[in-house]
Amino acid sequence: MSSTTISTSKEEGIEILLEHLKKDPENVEVLLKVANHYYDSEESEAAIETYKKLVVLMPDDAEILSQLGLCYGYVGDFFNAIEVFEKALKIEPEDSLLLSFLADSYSYVDEYNKAIFLFNKALEINPEETYALDSLGIIYEELGQDIEAERCYRKAIEADPTYAYAVKHLSSLLADRGEYVVAKELLTKTIDLFDSDDDYRRSLIQKELKDIDEKLEAIEATKNEDTGDKAFQLITLTKSRGIESKVFDGQRSFMKFIEEKTVASETNYFTILRRWNSYTPIIADNHYISKGGGYFLKANGKGIVIDPGFNFIDNFKGSGHHFSEINSILITHSHNDHTADLESILTLLHKYNELIIGLDDRYRENTILSELSKKRKVNVDDIPEEDVEHAFLASKRRKVVDIYLTKSTLLKYSGMFDLFSGNDYRLHVVEAGDVRELQPSLKMTVMPAKHNDIISDRDSVGFILDIDNTAIIYTGDTGWSDSIAKAYSAMNRKLRGKYKLLVAHLGGFKRYEENYLLPSIRGRSYYKNHLGRIGLVKINEILKPDVCLLSEFGEELKEYRCELANIFNEVFNGVTTFIPADIGLTFNLLENKFKTIHEISVENAHIEFGLSTPSQIGTQMCRKDYSLHYHDRSNNINIGDLVHVLGERFDSSRVGTRYQKETEICPFGEANSY
Fold first, then answer.
1. Angle of helix 112-125 relative to helix 96-108, nearest 10 degrees?
2. Are 236 and 225 spatial neighbours (Cβ–Cβ below 8 Å)?
3. Whether the predicted model's global pTM rises above the 0.90 cut
4. How far apart are CA 223 and CA 360, in angstroms?
5. How many of the other CB atoms lie within 10 Å of CB of 124?
6. How many CB atoms lie within 10 A of CB 328?
7. Between helices 112-125 and 130-142, what is the axis angle to 10°?
8. Which region among 42-46, 82-86, 283-287, 547-551 has the lowest average model confidence (pLDDT)?
């Protein structure tokens, strides 16, 4: 791309430029100088606003669009970066660097296939595009394809031997592989390739060189092994037999889950991450069958966790989600199966922010510490810790989670919470009747619940989440009573005209529910702590939701969930569609449709997903773990083939085979099982 940057003289400071703009706010030349000043000063937010003004005045300037896209990338807004780079490419479709910028943005939202395609397209135009070659190598390394990564790095170095980043990345790759001598030679070269005043990067290289020297020294030491030193033998054997490398691979996988990341997803969706109810996960004898969990709502880019019980983090991560997506937590009551993973979330939150700060790992780039080091052009070890902590507290990158919880839950965790202003969380105690605006377009109404959670018999609640034209009605755990019926009747009048998704907690069956058959003792038939069969009927008669997701099953119902949903559908005769909820069932709030299996390939156990209306959904049970999977009946999927594919994927998941991320959304139908 030809540069349109206009240099600002040393005499002409930013204040003078801003004065010019007050007199002539549409002066393109001055705006460009201001934008470039902000860009060079790494004041990305100010640069973005100025480049946006320039785009309005010069919509066909690919360079300005490119600079705007880069600024979006610097602040982590990769979705806007993608949109801007795509506009620029319509103007300059053969610009290899622009293609590389777009590809890089896709890689940051885990769209690796698109990124690889675009990088290769850039390289077709310019086979020596070093930025594309180096970035492509990073992706291949991320995907575990080290041979391809090495090939890309070497081609980048061949195209430009002074391209420091490719040399640095190749040396790190070789060091990870144990080729320390070659890695050290390459790393030594990079010291002179980076700018002499880039003390930050040069200090990192010096640290890595020190690490390599220590590893080389350790290798020499093993040649003269002291067979009497058992600790020495233990370290040597865990390394030589590959255990150490596998452990570190596992650590890297965990770190990816909690690293700061922009996540690509539908704008608004609600997903089930729960299978069984209260006690089952506590006494589970089969990890693959006995699953608790919770729920997750993504609304306008913000993630809301609901009742994170046993296995929530496990289910959340396994469904392809990333910790960075969590912004708020809603808790209906204090029982373990609705709160068990709350402490885990707070622990991960602390670790997440520690990674952003960077004090515990000074090798990491893109941390608050590295930002200060680059800005001040000094060694990372020369930055005072208090400066880093202060900068972090003021940073927009700091993650602070809002927790909405009941009085009983606060009492349960009173020893864990503290009230310091520097906390990574904010506590909000809620009770029935409260109305809270969680986001500008998302209102939460707190509903009463009849549920004894051991600590209290009056503080449990449910939630109604009102977003745009959809209402998600989450009962939580509640028995049925006249007062509960009145509360939902009153609320239903306020929900007129909205699409209603009811998430109702069944619990299980009780023998005394049969009392309903006898009018004289009908009042003694309601399930005490959950809706049960009768409460489920009553709440659906009042709300008449478009869809009712049957959830919170006792594990004794594992064989009968599909059949139970079919009976509800028969009784309500099309007024409401009933679906048995299981981990992975996902509702798209923009389309009012569910994510379902649309196509399968028996040869490679591949599954393609799409969106289906509730009436199109069919359900398939996998008996190996009693999980439910949802498919589109209108696609005429062969049930035998589906059974085979689901079995293959389950078996592979147990031995660690990695499928594409789409496998993690487990989509509903006939009560077929295997």
1. 170
2. yes
3. no
4. 33
5. 12
6. 22
7. 150
8. 283-287
Distances (CA, A) of 23 to 7, 47, 54: 21, 20, 16
Tokens of 498: 């909205």
Distance CA 423, CA 220 (A): 47
Which residues sit opposite 405 in a β-bridge?
429
The whole-angstrom separation of Cα 480 and Cα 535 is 5
Beta-strand relationship, 461-467 and 547-553: unpaired
> Do the strands 302-306 and 293-299 form a parallel or antiparallel pair, or are they unpaired?
antiparallel
499-541 pLDDT, tens per residue? 999 999 999 999 999 999 999 998 889 998 899 999 999 999 9
Cβ 370 vs Cβ 380: under 8 Å: yes
Structure tokens at 382: 């020369």
Residue with the two structure tokens 């460009």: 32
Q: How far apart, in whole angstroms, are the C-alpha atoms of residue 574 and residue 630? A: 19
Q: Which two tokens stand for residue 263?
A: 């996540």
Residue located via tokens 């020495």: 232
CA angle 614, 618, 622 (to 5 degrees): 135
Distance of alpha carbon 505 from alpha carbon 277, whole angstroms: 9
Q: How far apart are CA 113 and CA 342, in angstroms?
A: 35
On whether the CB atoms of residues 194 and 201 are closer than 8 A, the answer is yes
CA angle centred on 54, ends 53 and 56, rounded to 5°: 70
**How far are the Cα atoms of 12, 40, 66, 509 from residue 16, in angstroms, in the given order?**
6, 17, 26, 76
pLDDT tens digits for range 466-494: 998 999 999 999 999 999 999 999 999 99
**Whole-angstrom distance between the N-terminal and C-terminal Cα of the chain?**
59
Residue 324 and residue 399 in contact, taking contact as beta carbons nearer than 8 Å: yes
Percent of the chain with pLDDT over 70: 92
